[in-house]
Structures are given as structure tokens and as C-alpha cells.
């Protein structure tokens, strides 16, 4: 049975050889590098203990350094399953979900036809390259020089020129003995509907040959020299060789570069790819001037697990990125995804590299966003979610989007990532470190600031916990002794106050240059926090603390801060442990003694904290710790884990 042209290529593109081989071997995880498609295992064809069987997933081949077995996915199935070639094709086609073609006695004729057309396109490449050296191409050479394409680049990409003559390439190729029908069917010339003489498909254009993964010229792209041309860029029409939705510009060289560890970058056009390669980014491809298709996406994933989509920094570029999100979601699988790198406004990769160099491009690629963030941006950017209805509509859109992901585990991870982004959107956020800004709230009532008249009575009303009191003691002490801020800067950055005023005060303390208490007061006033500082200093529980009410004593203040920061950190860790232990209690099976040991450990930690909490200004914390310890002790004495289910 003969197979139609391109069937085996499509079959190999759809199925990873590591998936085929992986059913028969156990990979050596220490030697293999899955991210690069570099896999090693003991050979399945001869007895051995070492991992000498190598699979290059990107190139689609295997080789054993012991018995020297080698081949592609089809060859592996033939050898491993002891089947013939066509049976191996059928087995691989079933796995790929591709129907076998019907028996076609004329298939060999089509293969011969494709061979003749490829000969015509190769002759066209040679003709166009020769024309670039003629006087008629002077303007084209000047343009390429202005774009920064040196002689080595012109040679590397085989760039040529099609003069304005009506039958330039047609006449040249037919004069060499290539049949007129071959020149026309290869897409180099067009026959008018009225039956008149054929004319060249590309005229007065710079020519970019397009090659498939095997290096065969399958078509051309042409950039018009005339400003008033009907199309600035023109691709070959669809031919038996060329399907622009299943081809990538610079496919073969990009695959080789990606195999050596370079990131796969997907740009919009020929010149972007050339600029990237010139700048050292050899694994660059382009989708031939059209929106990326599903077939092209599969080709990209055969080259690299995480292609970086580098689109122009304009509205059209962003729209293209968002359309690609919808295309990719139903095709995602563990390890296969996309990242997005949007260029600065009004620039493409070529512009950016010329203006700021390769390092700027590399830095931008390093910040490429994962697909989940592009999905989030699409559903939230420029919108206001100030009502339950709008928020519910967002939830529905996100559920619908991730519902397209076929893999259940991956779908769950997307849900978790989007839930985290959602919490950040609808709840107050406290920026970290020196870059802290004002407390932000972008949602509902839970994010509102406390009313001014309630601040002074927050502790008495139960709005403040023991942790809040400790935070306030730390902040009040640092406000009085700003010279100690640098010493405790790391601990201060880790502080996580619950109340907006306290978050803002931390921000002021981390950024202040004041050397005394009055300077801190001035910084707080400038930040609109005079009321917060006044409320802090006026709290009764803090006014009686010696370190705040007595004569200045920086050494004693440093000891106080050391103790309070330690208690704060330990108390948060212990509360988390107790919470986890009590949650486990609900799920623990009857007779599970590990939970008893865990509760005992938590009590010991609590009793240690209770003794540490006996210092000044900490009575509330000590009482709280004692209550928690007593609760845990009661659970242990009752041995509740043994009584569950009775």
C-alpha cells in the first residue's frame, strides 16, 4: 500500500518517540533530561543494566551505544513488536488518532509529482538568489542593508529577489528544461483564467524561501518593494507542497537550536526571525503571516515544551495572543504549555534588538508570562468587579475556559492558580518589602478600612487579637527608637499585620530615614498616617509599657524587640501547627497514635510559649497561650483519636 505525501511526516509529528519507547523501557531519571527531550534507559533489545539506550525526542530518533540499534518511532515499533512497516504505521496511526488513508494505486504518482515540484522550487531558490546580485536589485540590497542583514545572513536564509519582469522566473526555469506545469503547480507562476501566457507569482519583491523540517523548499514569501503594492508580504499559494497552516518559517534550524538548549521563540514575521537569529536566538520561528493554527502549535511542541510567543507590542499583537489562549487550552497536557512575551508598545523583536540590543531581548524573554496569567489578563483587564453579579460572571468565564483542558490534574492546577489570582483581586493586598504601597482593596466590603471612631476602641471590642497587640508593641517601639530599624529590618519585612493602618506604618518604617521619634512622626504625617500613629501611642495597654513610658533606653528597647519578634514568629508557627492537628483530628482513623504524639508535641510547644509570654506587656498573650494549651491537653487526656467512630 502506498501512502500519500506528507502522511508519515504528519504521523511522526503527532506522536512523541519518547511516548512510544516509554511503554517498553524504564527511564533512568538521573541521566535523562525530560525538559530537553534527552532520555536514557537500559536497551530493550539486549540484556544490560546500564542506561546506554538514548532517545532524542526532538529529533525523533533512538540509538543504543551497546547493540547499535537505531531508528525512528516506526522503526522502534517494528523491532519491539516484531511487525512489518505497514503494520507499524497502522499501530502508530491508531495511537495518534489518525485514520489510515484508503488504498490508492495512484499514490506513487503523487509522490513522483511532489519530487518534481520540489525540484522546481529549488531551481526557483537558485534563480532568486542570483537575481539579488543584479543591477535591478540595487534598491532591494539597499533595503536589506538598512535592515542590518549582512552577507552571512543573506546566505544563511538564502534571501533572493524577484524582478518586476512578468515572466522572469517562469522563463528562466522553463529554459532549463523544467516543465511549465511544474513551475505553475509549484506556486512560482500563475496561469490566467483567460488562458493567456503564465506570469510570475512574485514580482518586484524580496524573496524568503520557506523550507519544511527536512530542509525541502516548499514555498516562498515575498516582501514588496513598491509602497503601493496590494500586499506588503505575499506567501506562495496552497500547493501539493505548501500548506501555510502546517508550516513554520525556519523550522529545521530552530529545531536544531532548541535541541541544544535555546528557547523556542515564536515571532510574527520573517524579519523578526532573522533579527532574532542574528542576535543569537537561533530557535526562532514564525507562522507565515497568519494566526497560529493547531497544526503549527503541535509542530512547536515537537520542538520545545514551552514555546515563547513573542508578539508585537500593539493591539493586534495582544489580540493574537488572546486568540492563541483559546486555541491552546484544549490541547494542553502536562509539560506542554506556552509562555507569552509582549513587546514594548509599538515595537517588534526586530525593533527592540536594533534599539536596545540582544540583552534587552533576553531580559524581556526572561519575564515571559505563563499561559494561565494571559488567560487571567484576558478575563479581567480593564474591567470593574464591584458587584456580586460581575464577580459571578467572571467565575463562570474562568470555569468555562479551564473546562476545555482535557487533563484532569492540569485542570485542577489551573483552577488553583486562578483561585489564587482571584483572592488577590478581591481581597486586601499587603505589598512586601521596601516596595510596599498603600493598602489596596479592589472588591467588596471586607476590604474597607476601619472607621476612624472605631480605631481607639478596637481592642476593647475584640477587633484586636493578642498577635495584633504584639505587632502594635513592635511598631510603637520602633517609632520611638528608629535607630533600631536597620537592625530588625528583616524581621520587620516578615511582619504580616491584619490591619491596614499597621501595614502602612510598616511601610513608612521600612522607608524612613529619620533618626529620631519626631522624624518618624513627620514621615507618618506626610503619608497621611498621623491618626494611626496617634492611636498607637494612645492605646492604654502600650502606655503602661516601661520601654515606651519610661526614659529612653535603646539597649533595653533592642532586647524587647528581639523577644517580641521571636514570640511573634513562634506563636504564628504554633498556631498553624495546632490548626493542622485539629483538622487532622476530624480525618484521623480510630486508634491512630501518631495524632496523639502530634498533639503532645503541640502542647509542649505551647507550654514553652506560655513561659516565654510572662514578660512585660504580654499578659494577654500568656493567657491566650494558656487557653490553647489547656484545650490541647483536654483533647489528649480524653484520647479522642481512640474514641472516634464509637
From TrEMBL:
Cofactor: Zn(2+)
Keyword Transcription recorded: yes
InterPro entries: DNA_primase_core_N_sf, DNA_primase_DnaB-bd, DNA_primase_DnaG, DNA_primase_Znf_CHC2, DnaG_bac, DNAG_N, DnaG_primase, TOPRIM_DnaG_bac
Pfam families: DnaB_bind, DNAG_N, Toprim_4, Zn_ribbon_DnaG
Residue ranges covered by zinc fingers (CHC2-type): 43-67
Subunit: Monomer. Interacts with DnaB.
HAMAP family for the chain: DNA_primase_DnaG
Written domain comment of the UniProt record: Contains an N-terminal zinc-binding domain, a central core domain that contains the primase activity, and a C-terminal DnaB-binding domain.
Protein name: DNA primase
Source species: Roseicyclus mahoneyensis
Gene name per UniProt: dnaG
Amino acid at each position: 500500500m502506498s501512502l500519500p505525501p506528507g502522511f508519515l511526516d504528519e504521523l511522526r509529528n503527532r506522536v512523541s518517540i519518547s511516548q512510544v519507547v516509554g511503554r517498553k523501557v524504564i527511564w533512568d531519571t538521573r541521566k535523562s533530561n525530560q525538559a530537553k527531550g534527552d532520555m536514557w534507559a537500559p536497551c530493550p533489545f539486549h540484556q544490560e543494566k546500564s542506561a546506554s539506550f538514548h532517545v532524542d525526542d526532538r529529533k525523533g530518533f533512538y540509538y543504543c551505544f551497546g547493540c547499535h540499534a537505531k531508528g525512528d518511532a516506526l522503526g522502534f515499533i517494528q523491532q519491539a513488536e516484531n511487525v512489518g512497516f505497514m503494520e507499524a504505521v497502522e499501530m502508530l496511526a491508531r495511537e495518534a488518532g489518525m485514520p489510515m488513508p484508503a488504498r490508492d494505486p495512484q499514490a506513487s504518482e503523487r509522490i513522483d509529482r511532489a519530487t518534481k515540484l520540489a525540484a522546481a522550487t529549488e531551481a526557483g531558490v537558485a534563480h532568486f538568489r542570483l537575481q539579488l546580485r543584479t543591477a535591478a536589485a540595487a534598491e532591494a540590497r539597499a533595503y536589506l542593508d538598512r535592515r542590518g542583514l549582512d552577507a552571512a545572513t543573506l546566505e544563511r536564509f538564502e534571501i533572493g529577489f524577484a524582478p518586476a519582469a512578468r515572466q522572469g522566473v517562469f522563463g528562466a526555469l522553463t529554459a532549463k528544461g523544467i516543465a511549465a506545469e511544474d513551475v505553475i503547480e509549484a506556486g512560482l507562476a500563475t496561469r490566467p483564467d483567460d488562458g493567456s501566457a503564465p506570469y510570475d507569482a512574485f514580482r518586484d519583491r524580496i524573496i524568503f524561501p520557506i523550507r519544511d523540517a527536512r530542509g525541502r523548499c516548499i514555498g516562498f514569501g515575498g516582501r514588496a518593494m513598491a509602497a503601493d503594492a496590494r500586499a506588503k508580504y505575499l506567501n506562495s499559494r496552497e500547493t501539493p507542497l505548501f500548506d501555510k497552516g502546517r508550516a513554520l518559517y525556519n523550522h529545521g534550524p530552530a529545531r536544531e537550536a532548541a535541541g541544544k538548549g535555546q528557547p523556542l521563540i515564536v515571532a510574527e514575521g520573517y524579519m523578526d526571525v532573522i533579527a532574532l537569529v542574528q542576535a543569537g536566538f537561533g530557535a526562532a520561528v514564525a507562522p507565515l503571516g497568519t494566526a497560529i493554527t493547531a497544526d503549527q502549535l503541535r509542530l512547536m511542541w515537537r520542538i520545545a515544551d514551552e514555546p515563547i510567543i513573542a508578539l508585537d507590542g500593539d493591539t493586534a499583537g495582544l489580540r493574537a495572543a488572546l486568540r492563541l489562549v483559546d486555541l491552546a487550552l484544549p490541547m494542553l497536557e502536562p509539560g506542554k504549555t506556552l509562555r507569552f512575551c509582549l513587546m514594548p508598545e509599538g515595537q517588534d523583536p526586530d525593533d527592540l534588538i536594533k534599539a536596545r540590543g540582544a540583552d534587552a531581548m533576553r531580559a524581556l524573554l526572561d519575564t515571559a508570562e505563563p499561559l494561565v496569567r494571559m488567560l487571567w489578563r484576558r478575563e479581567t483587564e480593564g474591567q470593574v468587579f464591584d458587584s456580586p453579579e460581575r464577580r459571578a460572571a467572571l467565575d463562570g468565564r474562568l470555569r468555562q475556559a479551564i473546562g476545555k483542558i482535557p487533563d484532569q490534574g492540569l485542570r485542577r492546577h489551573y483552577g488553583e492558580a486562578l483561585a489564587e489570582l482571584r483572592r488577590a483581586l478581591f481581597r486586601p493586598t499587603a505589598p512586601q518589602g521596601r516596595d510596599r504601597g498603600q493598602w489596596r482593596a479592589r472588591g467588596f466590603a471586607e476590604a474597607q478600612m476601619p472607621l476612624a471612631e472605631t480605631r481607639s476602641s478596637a481592642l476593647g471590642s475584640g477587633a484586636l487579637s493578642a498577635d495584633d497587640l504584639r505587632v502594635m508593641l513592635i511598631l510603637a517601639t520602633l517609632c520611638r527608637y528608629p535607630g533600631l530599624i536597620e537592625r530588625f529590618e528583616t524581621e520587620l519585612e516578615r511582619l504580616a499585620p491584619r490591619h491596614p493602618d499597621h501595614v502602612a506604618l510598616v511601610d513608612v518604617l521600612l522607608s524612613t530615614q529619620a533618626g529620631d521619634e519626631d522624624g518618624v512622626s513627620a514621615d507618618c504625617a506626610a503619608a497621611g498616617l498621623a491618626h494611626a500613629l496617634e492611636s498607637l501611642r494612645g492605646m492604654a495597654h502600650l502606655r503602661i509599657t516601661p520601654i515606651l513610658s519610661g526614659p529612653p533606653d535603646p539597649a533595653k528597647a533592642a532586647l524587647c524587640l528581639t523577644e517580641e519578634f521571636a514570640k511573634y514568629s513562634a506563636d504564628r508557627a504554633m498556631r498553624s501547627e495546632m490548626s493542622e492537628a485539629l483538622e487532622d483530628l476530624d480525618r484521623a482513623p480510630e486508634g491512630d497514635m501518631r495524632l496523639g504524639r502530634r498533639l503532645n508535641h503541640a502542647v509542649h510547644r505551647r507550654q514553652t510559649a506560655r513561659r516565654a509570654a510572662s514578660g512585660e506587656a504580654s499578659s494577654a498573650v500568656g493567657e491566650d497561650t494558656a487557653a490553647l494549651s489547656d484545650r490541647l491537653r483536654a483533647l489528649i487526656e480524653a484520647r479522642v483519636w481512640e474514641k472516634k467512630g464509637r
